[in-house]
Amino acid sequence: MKGPPLTRRNFGSLVAAGITLPSIAGAASGQSDTTGQEAKIDDRAGGTEIHTPEKSMGIYVGSDLTEDGSTILAGFGHEPSSHWLEIVPHQEHDSDATWTVGVTENADIPGELTEIPQAEETYKYISSMYSFYAGFPPPLTNGGLNEQGVAARDIWSPSRPELVEMAEAEAPQTGPQYSDLAKAAMERASTAKEAVEIVGGLMDEHGYSTYGGNSHLFADEDEGWVFINFAHPDGDLWAAERLGSDEVRVSYPGYIQEFPVEHEDDPDYMGSEKLVSFAKGQGWWDGEGDTLNLLEVYGAGQFPAEADEYFYPEFYQGARSPPDREQDLRDMSPVSLEDALVWIRDPRWSTDFQGYGQVAHIRPDTRDELQTLWTTVTSSAGTPFVPIPIATEEVPLEFEQHRYMTADAASNFLDKNWQHQEATRYATREFKRLLYLTAEHPEEFYTDVTGAIEGFEQDLLAERDEIESEAISHYESGEDQKARDLITENVRTRLLESLSLGMELADEVQATTREEFGFRRPERQEAPGETAPGTSQPMAEGGWGDMVYVYDDATHEFPREHGSFTESESTETPTTTEQEATSTETPTETDTATTETDAPGFTALTAGAGAGAAGYLLKRHVDSDD
Question: Which N-terminal stretch is annotated as signal sequence (predicted)?
Fold first, then answer.
């Protein structure tokens, strides 16, 4: 199928068909889109509604541009799903072992699962898992950080409509999908370049199951690579570009622009065999020049911020200009770990859509076991980052899978095997509660909530050297298990403390809301013969642009220093006895979330700026009335 040469294409042409979506009003601060018009959606999926392809983010900052010489790979995913933390252990497999890849008939573009050979050895990695995206089978992952010091991010990258139509025409599709490929990179790659070779090799050999185009960012301590999976069903359209230690990249979406025609011997590029010839054969590239612009030839042709009309609120879609965001990073250099935490938390993109936040901090001359993934279990706008080193052996059950927002959870009762896990508080749900409460009045609560969260994070940052020094001492003495126990207990304690903080903050915001504003009930959607109150009607009828967010023009700051909203003078610290009396304490298997741990080298952070900060929220509003 040949098509006309590609010029500039509107993102609306990449989403589904014949559906008129309402203009988008801000869910929290009254912000609205600039057009005030209805967004028209062109046909591309046979009438099946698919939301606009504006999703996750990945950022790469090379080691020459960071404060401590580390490589930073950070980002988040956008999935309407449950999310949880997972530590996948190092494993050995039989030489004839296989693993299941691909998608089922339930995917947006239907497919069939297949079996492909498993590696005989798979590496340990830390990841955020989730249960649903585009109908793909769970559990799903976008990457994370592995024991070799390789980090991965998975980011949407919409292919041109003709490619998506080819995939639809050849359904059922087969071959690994984006999560399978991210998983393979984590389990098999010892460098970022090797991750590219693994993912490209799997696509070449087994094909590719797509939802419409995708990308990856890979990084190690020396370099990064951006990888684009175009939507061709045979899996033989992919490209990769090296990112040096003196470069930054913002995939928002993932993209590659100028790509050399003669790339086979270029150390900075890799691509599938037919990448160039297919474009010329389709008439999408005229064959002139030494390079072709892959964003124009195979991609969407423009970035979301360049669209003539916005589907999402202006602050959100207008920020989706990778060149502008890359200039922001260059202007910020040298970039610190704290800068990366603030970046992922920025309310322009840290909305209810943000399923989790990750910052991989890959440091030179650091033991592999101590390379660290800072992570939030859901939207960073209302969740503290907690550092999880590779040495960590497990996380508390509160941060693992639960039924809230899990795909198909309502289709049956709970299996007995999971009753204890499900009985624990679900961290994702608790932090979502804080986000939703804050988003109703962001001008009143956002800076206070963020200040409390970042006060807690500052305590975590301050203890890293001491924790790592003690772990290194154990490793150097041949006491590897003691080192792992130390790190695991620290992670367990800090995660549970972060949960206690989130619950306390939510209770404070709720109490203040009840006293000062009252609670707003959802408006009832009128329909002929409908009798159900608004509180019982469907909760997701407003369209994808009707998002929950905490962005507010009056409070937004960029660039912003980490902790800038944290009060310098901490409120009175609650004692252990006082904390045990609060209703927000989270139940744990050992009940040590807010008490001093027996593990040497660290104490509970109940006395830090973060843990004491929640109490000032209600007090601040009461004082302001005097």
Answer: none
Residues whose CB falls within 8 Å of the CB of residue 20, separated by 6 or more in sequence, listed in order = 38, 39, 40, 41
Residue 216 and residue 200 in contact, taking contact as beta carbons nearer than 8 Å: no
Distance between CA 561 and CA 39 in Å, rounded? Answer: 37
Is residue 11 a contact partner of residue 51, using CB atoms and an 8 Å limit? no
Residue 457: both structure tokens together: 């994070």
Grade residue 11 by pLDDT with cuts at 50, 70 and 90.
very low
Return the residue matching tokens 């030179």: 364
Q: How far apart are CA 314 and CA 81, in angstroms?
A: 25
Supply the pLDDT for residue 541.
78
Bridge partners of residue 153, in order along the sequence? 217
Q: Which positions ≥6 away from 239 have C-beta within 8 Å?
A: 227, 228, 230, 256, 259, 269, 270, 271, 272, 275, 294
Q: Where are the domains of the chain?
A: 57-367+376-381
Q: Which residues contact 49 (CB under 8 A, 6 or more apart)?
A: 16, 19
Global pTM reads: 0.86
- Asked if the model's pLDDT at residue 563 lies above 80, the reply is yes
The answer to whether the CB of 54 falls within 8 A of the CB of 345 is no
Joined together, the tokens standing for residue 92 give 């050995």
Phi/psi for 600 (5° steps) reads -70, 160
Tell me the per-residue pLDDT of 286-324, one tens digit each, with 9 for 90 and over. 999 999 999 999 999 999 999 988 888 999 999 999 999
Find, among 246, 194, 238, the residue nearest to 220 by Cα. Answer: 194
Interaxial angle between packed helices 616-624 and 480-516, expressed in degrees from 0 to 180 and rounded to the nearest 10: 30
Q: What is the DSSP letter of 411?
A: G
Mean residue pLDDT of the chain comes to 86
CATH architecture of 57-367+376-381: 4-Layer Sandwich (3.60)
Mark out the alpha helices in 245-286 (DSSP H runs). 275-281
Alpha-carbon distance of 159 to 146, in angstroms, equals 29
Q: State the Cα–Cα distance between residues 58 and 226, nearest whole angstrom.
A: 10
Q: Among 339-343, 517-521, 589-593, 614-618, which is the least confidently predicted range? A: 589-593
Mark out the alpha helices in 83-191 (DSSP H runs).
161-169, 178-188
Instruction: Quote the pLDDT of residue 37.
Output: 27
